[in-house]
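Worked problem 6 (solution included).
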Amino acid sequence: MNLKEKLITSFLAFENKVSTDTETTVHDTRSKAFSHFEKNGFPTRKDEEWKYTPLKSVLKHDYTLFPTTNTAIEFATVKEYFIHEIDSYKIVFIDGVYSSYLSETTHDGCDICLMSSSLKKPKYKMVIDHYFDKITSKNDSVTSLNTAFSNEGAYIHIPKNTVLPKPIQIIHFSTGSEAQLMLQPRSLVIVGENSHVQIVERHQSLTNNVVFTNSVTEIFAAKRAIVDYYKIQNDKKTASLIDSTYVQQKQQSIVSVNTFSFGGNFTRNNLEFHQEGEHIDSILNGITIIGDKQLVDNHTLVNHNYPNCESHELYKGIYADKSTGVFNGKVIVKQAAQKTNAYQQNNNIIIDDGATINTKPQLEIFADDVKCSHGCTIGQLDEDALFYLRSRGIPKKEAEALLLYAFANDALEKIKIPELKTRITKLIANKLGVELGFEL
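Solution. The predicted structure is:
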């Protein structure tokens, strides 16, 4: 039985298990999503959007879909995966199950809690009916699969005129209690008018057992809301991740999504922005540093639907050994979206001859009074700059690392949490195999 067949046969049992959410429209939403997945299955390389990203190696395993073992974890064991230098709210899951011991949630002035609770409790019915699965791509079968099996994840609802005093960390741990595990977390983030939130998300395996995560997050930013979202992807080489994030923005809101991809065997990031108002700013940043036979695919889409809006997109990639990078960024400017300012750039460095990058920046412009630019570069380290550093007594490895760090630094400057910036800097140094002799 292949994975698609196993999922199909498991759906009815899953629905029966979580049938207490009949107070909402979620049951019908799940059923429609499941029908779409059942009809279309997993994407293949025949699909243009997956042309350079084969799923065959990910789908070949016999995954456990619903783990039955509850594994406890001590904080000291996983402390390194938290941004523990700062106080924060925490929503932690172990093998897909909420860990109250490691979490710090709240209902004091806002809701920072669980998706499963919001789907079941009548008091959340209006919010769920209004927001759940409203901006996801109905043509993406992997997202439909997540919707069909959606039950657990983070539920964050920040009311209007609220500035959270501390960031939120969302961490998904897999313990290796199952030899091969599939997880499908679903998160919903709603940020009210004039409110501000910072969120850090991470998926982390604790062993070398195989894990496949199909994650979906919906983010709604109301008028003048500010959302800073950070994704740390530095998992084991036996982990695969499909991370789909959908963002809807209202007028004068600012949303930034920063993706740092360093680990994992297979990583696919789908990021969509939908601008629904004027004077919106959408910011997309990414840094990818991989080697061995790792693959990271960043697929982005920004829909400019209203005038006087901006989008700024910058993705940097460093590829070594036989790694593969994919960037497909699309910006669509509708006819009504006059005075749009859209910037998109993808820059890549190939360290070894066996590495590959497939990049495809795209602009579709239907308005005539706009300022839009896009481009990509693929190259190697500047030999003259390397010679200059070595002539000043800097060893070759450290000189190369300094140049690579400088190359990636543009995207680092967008991080607004100092402790997180320091952590990412250290991760980059570790990936480059050197000790950078300075702190940020």
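Discussion: The first helix runs from residue 3 to 17.
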